[in-house]
Protein 1
Amino acid sequence: MTRTATPSQTVGPFFHDGLSRPGWSDLTGGGRAAGQVIRIAGRLRDGDGAPVDDAVIEIWQANAAGRYAHPEDRQERPLDPAFRGFGRAFTGRDGGYAFTTIRPGPVPGRGNAWQAPHINVAVFARGLLKRLTTRLYFPAEPLNETDPVLNSIDDPALRRTLLAVAEAAEGETPRYRFDIVLQGEGETVFFAV
Amino acid sequence: MSGIREYRRERATGQPPHLHPPYGSTVKRAPRRPPHPIVQTLSEVTGPGFADGWAGPDRADLTRQGQGAPIGERIILAGRVLDEDGRPVPRTLIELWQCNAAGRYRHERDQHDAPLDPNFFGAGQVVTGAEGEYRFLTIKPGAYPWRNSDNAWRPAHIHFSLFGPAFATRLVTQMYFLGDPLLALDPIFLSIADEEARQSLVAAYDPALSQAEFALGYRFDIVLRGREATPLEAAP
């Protein structure tokens, strides 16, 4: 190692113009991507339970076939030209954020392990000196039982913080709620990646 | 498929902690539990790509976004994006935002009593070149007060957002200016314990980058996480 990694600093409260990408909260490109379209919505809360209304939520995920749109994913599964797998949304006054995306397929883990379908989530906000990362998993997914990351968390209550909650579908579009708690009761499990 | 080449773990003193009470906003937002370590998988060593222009055209000149020229000291801000081993990070997106020369953001929540500049919007973006290089033309941002503590002022800074090749390399940071007396008092800057890491956020004046009778040049190289030398496991 020859160079010092540049340290992180907070995104601050005034990022909206700099990071504004209105189209990036819909990963389906208006419904062109292959797979089951889903909606994900949730709220971000602080240690007082107050909404965090100045945060950036980013997601990164595999496509419906379980392949990432990246040169290091060399699986022989189809890439979807209409699906890039990256999204960004800002939280609103109520701490809420929302994405429209595709339910990802399972992706390989280390060794012979398979990972349950999941969405990688990153949070940036005023007061966060560096980003927080976590994962969203889907409820009632059989592969959750053997997912290496979920199973590395011993406490079932903590493990549950990574599980989205199914809500009433919007027409034929399944909806999931994924609230993120930065601190205190119900604090989401965040990762050291 | 081949084994996973992990990205190097962060050096604790080279990054800020989540909880840093002198920066008051961390107190209710920093998680209480330490982060849960996970092994890196395809999910962490992949990330979005920008080589095909997905993010739209470069906006490298922040001095020509309005009808006329913004007020302030024009600066050329340039450098390279590298990894810890000095390898360039090509074709990655840099997003940048800043306040104007008077210390005011064009943002509804910025109520600082300083003038807005109708000719300065304060946001830019570029995709790095083949050698990781980038270049912006902008104006030097001003300092501004904030309510973190009595009579607190943020040093002049420019926000940078970078992706690098993977979810693991994503970085949002701030760039500062050499010689700013506010740096010694700023809890956000001082949240980084390691002096060398902290100073890496300070851009140096670079006469070679300056353009005669036009703009001062500042160099800011950004170093993203490097990779472990070999895959930690053989291919299955």
Protein 2
Amino acid sequence: MRLVPCPTCGPREAGEFVCFGEPRPRPDGTRPLAEAIYARDNLKGPVAELWWHRAGCRRWLTLRRNSATNAFVE
Amino acid sequence: MSGYRLKPVEPDARVTVRFDGRDFEARRGESLAATLLAAGETTVARSFKYHRPRGIVAHGAHEPNALVQTKDGMALATQLDAREGLDARAVNCWPGPRFDLAGVLDRFGALLPAGFPYKTFMGPGGRAWPFFERVIRALAGLGTLPTQTRPLRIEKRHAHCELLIVGAGEAGRAAAAQARRPGLRTILADDGACPDFGHVTSLGHTTVLARHEGGLFLALERAPHPGLDARLWKIRAGAAVLATGAVERPLVFAGNDRPGVMLLSAILAYARRDFVAAGRRVLIACNNDEGYDGALALAEAGVGIVGIVDMRLGAGGPARARLERSGVPIHEGMAIGAARGVPVAGARLVRLDGTDATRDVACDAIAMAGGHTPLVHLHSHAGGPLAYAGDAAAFLPAGAHEGAWSAGAANGRGLAAAADGARAARLALGGPAEPEIPLSPAGGLLARWESPPAPGADKAFVDFGSDVTAADIRLAAREGYDGVELLKRYTATGMALDQGRTSNMNALDVLARARGLSPDRAGTTTFRPPFLPVPFAAFADPGGPLWKPSRVTPLTAWHETRGAKMYESGANWRRPGYYPRAGETLDAACARECAAVREAAGIYDSSPLGKFEVAGPDAGAFLDFVYATRLSDLKPGRGRYALQLHEDGRLFDDGIVFRLAPERFFVTTTTGNADACLQRFSYCRQVLRPDLRVVVASVTEQWADLVLCGPRARDVLAAAAIDPPRDLPFMGIAGIELAGRPALVARAGFTGEMSFEMFVPASSAPAIWDRLLSAGAAFGIAPVGSEANHVLRIEKGFISVGHEGDGIAGPDDLGLGFAVHADKPDFVGRAALMRDRADPAPRPQLVGLLARDPAFVLPEGAAVLRADAAVGRGFVTASCASGALGRSLALALIEDGRALIGRDVAVAIDGGIAGAHVVRPAFYDPQGARQRG
Amino acid sequence: MGDYSFFGLLRHAFAGHAEWPRAWRDPPLKPHYDVVVVGAGGHGLAAAYYLAARHGIRNVLVLDKGWIGGGNTGRNTVTIRANYLREPSIRFHAEGLRMWRELSGALGFNVMFSERGQLDLIQTWAKLRDVKRRRSTMALAGVPFDILTPAQARARVPILAPEGPTRLPILAATWHPTAGVARHDAVAWGYARAADALGVDIVQNCEVRAIRRAGGRVTGVETARGFVAAGKVGLAVSAHAGVLAASADLRLPIETVPLQAFVSEPLKPMLSCIVNCPGQVYLSQTDKGELAIGGGSDPVPSYVQRGDFATIERVVTALLEIFPVLARVRLLRQWTGAIDLCHDTSPILSKTPVEGLYLDVGWGSGGFKAIPAGGAAFARLIANDAPDDAILPFALSRFESGRPLYETAGASNRD
């Protein structure tokens, strides 16, 4: 029931989206595999995360949200 | 037996209600509490822990005692409307509230201080607790399950507004008056009746239950019309004014819980609203001027006042002189030391310094006036911060929070409610900043609520609902449970149905004094939704067939009419398990269906399979990236078994990918992962590889998938006049016309027999299915369900991602290395796969198992044991009785399993061990000659 | 320690309960400890207790930014069970069940462990297959676990929806007789009191802001009240594991997500065991009579202890499908914890690349049941500076070696 600001569709309820979480760079040999695949920053505060608007425009969005308040920020 | 009616019930409003098996005359629509009070029924409840007799204390949702049971469930007597036929009983007492056998517990109160269960019942070897737990459970709990069997009729409705005003009291009404801008949508909601303002939507008898993020409010409207029990509103509000009011704060003295001791505000409300007097001789105890104002109002309503006990000296305002003139005794600088009698018959007064005033006042009701506690729940629900305001002796909202502005008494401005409500509305609607309106606490409030504790006196309660005394609070503080949260958990204060509305502040006051802190240092607990208890049904979505709706294929109706046993399989699809003939068991039906496939022909509905079209100049490159299998070199008209991996190298999904044209692929995935594949394809396309020119579309529902298989499959097709190209090779695909519409036919299947997989438009499927069955009748065709499919694939050693994958196996573990083209520079999961290939440590590997007893089917899920100990080494992933091989077969995932091929292992079964021989996981036609045809 | 017994209670009653000593001290911070445990929840307090009681390490400090048991220990629905999927998990929790049975006696504090059994309702064929496998592995670990017919399930829980056409009929049920519940706060308090009696310092309202290192080795923690030196530091902080680990340059495979719970108004006893409808809703009745109800976690990572209403609707809908008789029963309170969900849904009980820094995190929604076994294992790990066989599968290194311990068998688990 949270509102997610979709740049294509406007504010929509969170149930329309899949929250994929923080962007995950692919393993590129520069870091240990576990670091690349599993590790998360899991920051408390402003985070950039990927959302998929599954039941809307089906776009993958990078949105900024504060994980300590749940507020989306510009 | 003290209450009475100030005005008789009008004959046309007269109804009879039952309480504890006795009839009472009531005024229709008044609360049951008013009815009982009017009848002099002072003792209406027993307390939670000590089973002390209790009466009505309040006049609204903050009533802590008078909980009653009806066939519809539990309710507060203060919130239950009198109507003909209402039948209520007190809860948690036997035989009734006036005499309760468990009342004896109060005598042992000294043994039952806060936290007593933590300190005892640990007796011999832990055996004491199960016994005492049963006793405690039986004594605890309040009501019973509702006996009403009629389903509740509750609907949900969404509403959107620029301004939501909660509470139609003075502040709320003033706020509503501000909301006159054209086009502005305003909703005004109130627990009780709601005035009609014309320009606002008024929701009466509507309790706002909770405030969530994003301005979402939940509100429950009671009985909106005769056909509906309630309506749950989900209100999305741009801004809100929270004018939820305040509740009066009790005083803490010995026996303050005795029936007849009430809040002054309640006595006033019953007198003025219901014309019911709580007593003939009311004694008012106060720490502020409201005691005097209330006394005047009560006297005006015809209620007798026997005195005012004021903790202060020389206070009382203008009302005091009038009361003194009319001969009401004022006991200054004093408090009630102890109430006596059940119901209350008098009070012994003490001086504030604790010295006995040796004054005893006879009375039949005591009114407590301890100032007001703002109802800040809605502000607090969504995380709004609170700050202690010493002048008001209350925690108040620390400004607006996420567009919600508290106003009026809820904001500590009860005496300037209209101005505060109007101000809040202007600010909520985006008006310019305005100065704050000064706090208006109860006049001349002295921040003292507890009378001097007297040794040997009766218990003095801070929480009536949870039966917590001031001594309990001090004990908790003494033992180190001295933060407000620990205190709450140790003593249970604030945990009763009223969520501490009347108790939290007094508990905090006692705690702060015990620790020598100011109340703001002691802190407050958070308020948790809902604002009032709400039936679960109010929050539930429609159930039954609408709960997790099942998915059907174009042929589900056919399967059902043919008596198929339907299973709920992956992604909520309803699929046929088997098609039993009259009197046929599952095993017999399954064996017959398998035999048809192996010896003649079978047909199955594979429509739930995930299906995707992938098209574009870079479609091949895209699939090479998503799949571990190389697909870019696939020739048009051909398909290939392909694997998707998780980025950490585990198997994610399998399926066949066909190339229809140079820039167009048709991709099948497992049923259960179809949705996940859609997400993954679009993630890879948009996030990981936006450089590729490709589009992906899910076509799962567009295409039905009928699979004809068996040695007579070609004959059946011919008889049905379906003509795929004669030279269509194994794993080839071709477009043909079927029933006048385009379709795809592929030489692929999951049974190991000659197979034709027909992707046909969903609406054509029933006709083509019928046509194939009719044509196949002469050849012995049988429709085949998932049970037979399971056996057929085990015979072949084909894996099922959900069974053999186990969430941890990689492609090599499952013997699927042939489908991995690791020479591709990059694909999802490649790096981890290369790591696994370089790691010599043992991994789980797929093998076949032949039970020593060929007639014994190893149980699926059974643990395969290490040779040396009763420790698992793996487990049976799939198992069956194979007709084609004339014996039982199983697949298993076993650590370093391939090293065991040719050897025996032990499998744990009920009551012992079964021996099994480890073999390669391919039992039937291992060369695949039959499917190539 | 004061005498916690019936006779103790009686003796103190004559003194008006005015002479009960503090359950634990409010000690000043010392400049140096052998071990600092961060997090005064169940796991941290249990680890401190076992360090002192079993390993003779008593110069131990437990720090918390809030109050004792104020995190997920005091916010969960108290289910204690061992019906896991993977054998290491089953064996770990089987040991836990044994410890729970003895816990009140061992601590001298009644934690009200109530071995009332758990009934799982099986509504899909895939789940039925899954529980058959669990049963076989649990038998190896000596944990009784039976598969029941729907009629047997209804006999145990008479308030279940009667047999009839429903969207997802009950196909079978499992019965886990040694599962139980306990009083959550009491577990934290019991361990706190027992640890304190052995000399462990417990300091509340003192946030740890960073882990300090020198030369790849832990040297102590930076707190709201200054630096505290320590030879070893153990993190048992659930939701905030990532934040603290980051101060030691560690990134963990953990996301912090909200988990909601609900209680009903108190009712007379009507549900004698725990009922779980896997993936949908679970509930039990507290000794006070309230139904304690839980469901799945919210789908969006967050540190905010506030739940999404859509989750409430989902859980309550499932509840009424299974227990239509509860439709008119009232929901009293709803609250939210923030849990540390590990990528493979198994915990991390592990050493770290930083010498002297140990982790007891990632328990997700399952940390409460693991308090005794987890605390004891964490104490062993810290004392020995090496994992034993029981917790080796939970090591952080499992992610590097490609051996995650997924507690779900589904192929499409968290990607």
Protein 3
Amino acid sequence: MFDLSLFWEYRAILLQGMLINLLIFALSSTLGLTIGLIACVGRLSSFAPLRAASAGYIEIGRSIPEFVLLIWINNVLPFALSTMLGERIHFSPILSATLALGVVASGYFAETFRAGIQAVPRGHLEAARALGMRTPRILGRIVLPQAIRLMLPELMSQNIGLLKTTTLVSVIAVPDIMYQVGIIGQQEMKPLPLYTGTAFAFFLVILALTTLVHHTHGHLRRS
Amino acid sequence: MEFWTRTIIDNSGPLLDGFRITVSVSIIAFVVAAAAGLIISLARIYAPPLRPLLSAYIAFCRNTPIFVQLLWVAYAWYDIFTWPKDVFTAAWVALALQSSGYLAETFHAGFDSVPHGQVEAAEALGMSRFTALRRIVAPQMLLTMAPAFMNQFIVIVKCSTLVSVIAVPDLMFQAIRLTNIWGEPVPILTFVAIIFIIMIMSLSALSKSLTDRLRLRMAR
């Protein structure tokens, strides 16, 4: 019953699918970190309209389910853009996946950045200013070293969450691991070993990463 | 405007049916996950031999993507356990599976949050075990666990959108189906996306106000 040989037989193609997951993860994480940083700077700016716009963006990004945004970007956005611009626009599945996961991640990343920056005591800034440091120097030597240390564990676990979410992209026909599992499962008429194998493969990979994060967290606390 | 309202008002029946399924699958999954989480965390305290097994269960639930768990429960479990027999059951079982791991940890943290000395002090003052539980332990546990509980419910609602993939006719399933029928993706999918954003935002606001009120009451 627990014969996982079918899973092993298709290891090459499944591994290829897993690489697509990692690709989507790398792309959407980069996009999320970039937009998240911009949104965080906007959220902390002294210009009220920019602050409100950033806060609104972050709230929406954190509130929309990834799957809903994925389907929306895949089906609605190219259609709406085509109508608006009067020419046919086509999104590749990988682009849709990167955009959807990146936007959702950026909302969470922005809040993590903000929490990290705001956790640096105000007195440190005042002290640095009193010592005659200029703003870039204060940022580079006082704020960022502390803030990065504070937000690193949270950023890492959010990235692990993002890696888990990349499994959704099979619904919009990105040939990731779940997509391959679906196709092979249908061809072989044996879904059990494939889904079970994939579930446990993910479990081991994610568990290793989570353990690493815990380890780093402890390490950062001690130093 | 007519372009927006026509598609949505004409299809409000199926969309409302879908909304009901989304709500019921989320609530069933949450209640089952909370019950399972409580049982697991109690078993961890009172049945030490089971501890490694339960820890492995919790680690598995927390470290596997929900989408993989959903398809695994829906397509592989029947061959192992001859259960669940329909997609609706598979949907809430998968959602509850993931959350039970997180909620077991929440209960664990809740039990840990009350120092044992307080229970002993309550007993020394002549309180019965039940009174000590009701007046000393439970309120403090509730305060520690409430935010995590509300948060987990929001996670379940978000993940419930995935059940459309295994053909449970939830709100997202209806939106995709109607889009395919009418060939007009913009209004229906945008409307449903906005509904989800409003739903999750209201739940977050509710969660915040509930926790704040709880903290205020406890602080007296």
Protein 4
Amino acid sequence: MTVASPPTDPPSPVAPTRWATDLFLGRMTDGPVADDPDLATLVGLLDDEHVRTILAATNAEPLSAATLSDRCGVSTSAIYRRVDRLVDAGLIDERTRPRSDGHHDTVYVATLERFELVVADGEVDWTIDRTNRDVADELTRLWGKF
Amino acid sequence: MVALGAAVDALAGAAATGSALVGLYIGYQAYRGLRRNDEPAMRYLAAGMIILFGVTYLLAVVGQGLIAFHVVSIDLQGVFRLLVRLLQLAGLGLIAYSLHLAAGSRVPGG
């Protein structure tokens, strides 16, 4: 018998080492992070090839919807549908990047680092680990804010 | 007193190595910031940090080594010091320039 249960001890959205990074970079704490998505939402998202491409590509570097559209070979509206669901699920982060002409680019960064499914003690349990924001991105952002 | 002096020298060397490593770490993150975000300001920040901490440290160590092993005359100690100071100035100049680039690309109120 399979019972999909939410994590008994949901991982804290703030990783233990994060305060040190916050301190080092003088960063303000973010607002509340969305609760973990349920397992069906998560697995449904990961079942999509383009979603996996988006996660992999935005893990390497922050990318705009237009660039993701090129990488996946699908239209930008198809990309927006997916990134909206990924942002809602807390698997990627949306950022704005100032351009030299004064406009903003919206870019996406993967926050999902690990998704673990554990079958033990007659239960199916799962956890998501999210990455801390990348130090290099934070440095870039902060340097621009001075 | 000699032992104390040697210990102080060793600590000073360790602290210099430590600041070179931390400076290079920040320079490395700035370089990653350049690669990940295509932000030109990060190019000068990375170059500035690497010159300010990495290149000056290397030059100081090499200079001390060359003098200690009598490869070059001790009279050149001042020249090495001057070069290190000039590189520090160049590194800081690059960082200041980067700061202005970053401020220039910022959207007011954005």
